[in-house]
Design a protein that fits this description.
The structure is a homodimer. In chain A, the strands form two sheets. A three-stranded mixed beta sheet of chain A has the order 1-2-3. A three-stranded mixed beta sheet of chain A has the order 4-5-6. In chain A, helix 3 packs across helix 5 and helix 21 packs antiparallel against helix 22. The first copy, chain A, has three domains: about 130 residues, Alpha Horseshoe (MgtE N-terminal fold), CATH 1.25.60; about 110 residues, CBS-domain; about 170 residues, SLC41 divalent cation transporters, integral membrane domain (Tetracycline Repressor, domain 2, Orthogonal Bundle). In chain A, about 70% of the residues lie in helices and about 5% in strands. Chain A is mainly α and about 450 residues long. At the A-B interface, helix 13, helix 15, helix 16, helix 17 and helix 18 of A face helix 13, helix 15, helix 16, helix 17 and helix 18 of B. Chains A, B: Homodimer. Chains A, B: One of its GO terms (cellular component) is plasma membrane. Chains A, B: Keywords: CBS domain, Cell membrane, Magnesium, Membrane, Metal-binding, Transmembrane, Transmembrane helix, Transport.
Chain lengths: ~450, ~450
Amino acid sequence: MIQNMSVNQITLHIIKTLKENKKAEFETIIDELQPYDIAQIYETLPDKHRTRFLLFLNTDLLANLLEEINKEEQLDILNKLGVEKTGKVLDLMDNDDLASLLNELSPETTEQLLSGMKKEESIIVQNLMNYPDETAGRMMTNRFVWIRDYYTTREAVDKLKSFADFAETLSYLYVINQKRQLVGVVSYRDLLIAEPQDKIMDIMYERVISVSVTEDQEQVAHIIQKYDFLAIPVVDEENMLMGIITVDDIIDVVIQEADEDIQKLSAGGKDIDFDTKAHIAAYRRLPWLILLLFIGIVSGSIISSYEDILSKAVALSFFMPMISGMTGNTGTQSLAVIVRGLISNTINKRIVTKVIFRELLVGLIIGATCGIIITLIAYVWQGSPVLGFVVGCSLFFTLIIGTLSGTIIPLILYRFKIDPAVASGPLITTLNDIFSLFIYFGIASAFLKHLM
Amino acid sequence: MIQNMSVNQITLHIIKTLKENKKAEFETIIDELQPYDIAQIYETLPDKHRTRFLLFLNTDLLANLLEEINKEEQLDILNKLGVEKTGKVLDLMDNDDLASLLNELSPETTEQLLSGMKKEESIIVQNLMNYPDETAGRMMTNRFVWIRDYYTTREAVDKLKSFADFAETLSYLYVINQKRQLVGVVSYRDLLIAEPQDKIMDIMYERVISVSVTEDQEQVAHIIQKYDFLAIPVVDEENMLMGIITVDDIIDVVIQEADEDIQKLSAGGKDIDFDTKAHIAAYRRLPWLILLLFIGIVSGSIISSYEDILSKAVALSFFMPMISGMTGNTGTQSLAVIVRGLISNTINKRIVTKVIFRELLVGLIIGATCGIIITLIAYVWQGSPVLGFVVGCSLFFTLIIGTLSGTIIPLILYRFKIDPAVASGPLITTLNDIFSLFIYFGIASAFLKHLM
């Protein structure tokens, strides 16, 4: 009935069933919807209908709803549910989603919520929360299917059936030995092709690609992307199988990491989105801006130390913002290439040398081209061939230096395990500003008597 | 045997089997490896071993290898394989991967490669290549499992088994009617839970989330991310099922789109990575730099029109780069928030108003804070309260304008269906430069007699 309706039409329909208290009809509609749609509908629902909406959902759907909704709404829903139902719903939530919800709450609220849950479920979540943020251990779920290597294919399929409702992915079955160590993997595809009496140990892959609990989430994403996996197992230092990470969480990681790179490169604050409050957004952005302000003062004091030259040849000041702007820009261009390249390349000495040499060449080409153009323009505009030469020559050198600093600085930071994106945006701008002013006024001083 | 070896050790082992011409042993090793590993090993293999390596692989593995390897190596392998084997291998390749390989080749080479393939396979690939780049139609694969609604669960499972080797994903079975229109979807999970005699029409979801062949790949990624799907069906305007897109391709799209955003925001050239040749990288970056050069000339001419003020109060030039730098930076910060926000938010009037108002507030807070700081610094440094006031006041206004232009311009571009990232990086820098100079010298002119 609802298959061709838009989400808005369905919402109206649902409001009708809520008003008329028709639970059966409500359930028929909800049954056809994806968790994401249910969350969308709940968010647009007027407040007065929300309580009954939650009352009509069973605990499974409530858990799904909580997984899809933002933090504030999650807490609001938990308050509306009451203590007893909250415990049941939290038991059913994916433990990685639950851990990230609890992470935002005060220790008291966390304590209180955990105490309403089944003991074994609450222990699992607490264990998860012990791993640092953005590691594999923190993201993994324990809702996977494990089997033993002496199972037959038929036994494995039976286990898969009994786990169908519970598991986050049915694509892979992980094979463990008696110590719970990961010794193999069988895909659902392999099971389909195998005969019922085949032994798992004969059809399983023994070379299992896995990640450690302490692995950084970006690295996990990189591995899943390379191998095109739907999930990857997570093991501890003794190769014990601790959980799995599924591809849907990895897409979120990839987007989050790209957002972070962009925010860092634009010297913006972390975690600013459309919902962030103004004072929080301002507070997160200000540190970089104040830093840049002081860098501006440093540039200013360099300029002031050349006050004498400037007052003798005011025309020099016309080209000052252009030179520092261009140097900054070419540096950012190189930086962007390096930061994203570091994500998808395995770095070794050969590649580093190659890239630095490549960027040096790029700097030479760009520097020569822009240098010649500006020489001609400055000459025609100001009628002084010497000024043209000073400006063009300066731009040539500053562009080469800009390109190289945008290449070498992030590589050095990477080498010392500092995220190149965070430090090098403002760092490169500063250094390039200072370099460019020194070069410009240095060359200008040398030709001063011809400039006047 | 090889499960605990590194890829390097395995490579040495493989070279040994190649040297000794031991095909059976070679196959035992390869059998345990992922396609990505096989490609990695092939790429590090010395040239003299490559021909036998290719000879030892069966056509299935050759197709896998081609899917994982870069364009240059793909062509080299095809040359090494010879005409007849090439046809067979191309038949087995995923048609989306094949389409993107052929896309890079000359029409003659494409023609030649297609003529070696099975007729039906080559027609499918050619159809795919008719869709524009970066659309759903271009990315989809026809290797999926479709069933009819009158099937029983048992029949569906049988079909799934017969497709196990061929299909790119076994997670969903798509249900079509006699006109090949998409009418439902059944997940493998549903099949596991259902009874063998259950009819598909009774267990299928009728509200299928699908995308149109013409849908932009970024939008497809957005839908898959929201719904946490492993694949999504692609339909034409009559709702006929044309293909599916799988989540592994979507991860690549997300990374590619993030790279593009970063390159655009940093005014860098498209498609520059570690392997791009220097002259090509320079050629791709130069257009923006030359544009920025001319923008610099515009700024320069604005400054030159205030030459008189400048020569009377040289100290004004000390703060010039700081003011334009800060304005540019705050604009880029806002821009980054908007560009990434547009990806994950559904845009409507309410949200746009909210975000603009938020950024205005942010601009006020940032402007006031930085304005006060620089007033004090300029006063202490140059000993002139009027200069402090002029600089602080200018910074206050330029930061507000910078924030607003970084917010409003990308939103306007988005409204007119222009990608906000591409046009607004340099555009915002330009406009902010010009605004900031006018405001700075405007305020300075008003207070000129107090400045001297």
